Amino acid sequence: MAHSAAHSAAHPVEAPSRPAGRMLKIGQLAECSGLTIRNLRFYADAGVFGELPRSLKGYRLFPPEAIHWVGILRTAQAAGFSLEEIQELLRALRLNQVPCGHVREALGSKLSALEAKLAEIKVLADILRAALGTPDGQSSPVGCNIMETLLSEASRLPKLSETKH
Questions:
Q1: Where is the domain boundary, 63, 98, 133?
Q2: DSSP letters of 89-145?
Q3: pLDDT tens-digit profile of 131-148?
Q4: Which range marks the domain in which residue 155 is found?
Q5: Residue 60 falls inside a structural domain
């Protein structure tokens, strides 16, 4: 029993009361994965998990590897992958047809987009710091000195044509 408890602590996504290899109901997957039942229903209805069997009472049943699918889904979603891109990745995973080159290319593209967004956020943070460092007053042509700083710093922002539409 102590081994089981230690194993559960080391692998928190695994449900301690669920025997290995047994199908999961949506509530069990929610508990194991950290997603809500509502979110899981949305993804299941969108086809992200493929065709799911149902119990005799009509409950969706998820295979044990769905815990891993949800982990990939959450990471991919946070990285900016679209629902369609996530569906494609998970479909390939379910079919054991994951070409690493394709995954590497997709991840590289998302990393580039995230790094560009991070650079943009850093510029925006610098602009706000500069504005906050401006003393109060009404001596500028636009009135508030802080607003004048925002206006003068606007040239540091990327052009609209350079950003995602």
A1: 98
A2: HHHHHHTT---HHHHHHHHHHHHHHHHHHHHHHHHHHHHHHHHHTSPP-S-BTTBSH
A3: 888 888 777 676 788 888
A4: 113-165
A5: yes
